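Severity: low
Component: inverse-folding endpoint
Summary: output formatting inconsistent between runs
Steps to reproduce: submit the following structure tokens with default settings.
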């Protein structure tokens, strides 16, 4: 490993599994100190143990990122534990099963907006002042290709991710001259628990359901978590110093069609 993030303090939400856990592990391997969070307490504890096994300094707190008090508490934890915050990966999010718009109930829409949109907003609002105090930093918001165009049967999820990209681009312009870079990663469907639990859902023929999902992707497969995490590290890297306000797409060619 190159130690590209040696000494950097990195906050990762949604770190109990999927992109979040793997990203935290990769940052740890590159020398970062970690603050991690997830609503899944048991999985979060496993992540913290894994980070410490890698030799990283790591602290965490189980919490709901959709609650307004969570993000300030996490930033305070970073300050108290490590004295600063340099990088934030706002990864925590939820999806819903396939529903046409007229079939989406109000609780489903409100949940998408509370966690995906408001959770990202609360996080950025707390992270930005801390990074400015530290002289700059990088925020990476995990959005989706569903935030770049239409997403039939995923309208509530898509609306929340369009909003995340809007927050990303607006804040990137506001703080571009303050040493703060803010970008979004937009994966297509990946081989994660979220896709398996919500988009694919229960099926009598999981292989057929997965094949149908990947049929429209030019590469003919789902993304691996490692492929998406590689883009996250690229966006967060101090060496990637002139990219801000971008929605970086990792989709196997889907949006090229």
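Observed output (run 2 of 3):
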């Amino acid at each position: 490993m190159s130690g590209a993030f040696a000494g950097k303090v990195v906050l990762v939400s949604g770190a109990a599994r999927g992109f979040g856990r793997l990203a935290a592990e990769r940052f740890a391997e590159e020398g970062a100190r970690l603050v991690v969070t997830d609503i899944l307490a048991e999985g979060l504890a496993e992540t913290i143990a894994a980070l410490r096994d890698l030799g990283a300094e790591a602290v965490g707190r189980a919490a709901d990122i959709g609650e307004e008090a969570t993000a300030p508490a996490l930033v305070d934890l970073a300050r108290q534990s490590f004295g600063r915050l340099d990088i934030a990966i706002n990864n925590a999010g939820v999806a819903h099963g396939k529903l046409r718009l007229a079939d989406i109930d109000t609780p489903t829409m409100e949940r998408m907006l509370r966690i995906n949109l408001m959770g990202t907003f609360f996080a950025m609002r707390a992270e930005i002042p801390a990074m400015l105090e530290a002289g700059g930093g990088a925020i990476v918001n995990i959005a989706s290709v569903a935030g770049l165009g239409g997403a039939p049967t995923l309208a509530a999820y898509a609306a929340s991710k369009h909003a995340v990209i809007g927050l990303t681009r607006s804040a990137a312009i506001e703080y571009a001259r303050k040493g703060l870079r803010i970008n979004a990663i937009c994966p297509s469907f990946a081989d994660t628990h979220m896709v398996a639990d919500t988009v694919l859902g229960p099926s009598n023929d999981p292989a057929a359901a997965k094949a149908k999902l990947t049929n429209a992707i030019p590469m003919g497969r789902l993304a691996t978590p490692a492929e998406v995490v590689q883009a996250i590290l690229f966006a967060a890297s101090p060496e990637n110093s002139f990219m801000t306000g971008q929605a970086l797409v990792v989709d196997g060619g889907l949006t090229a069609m």
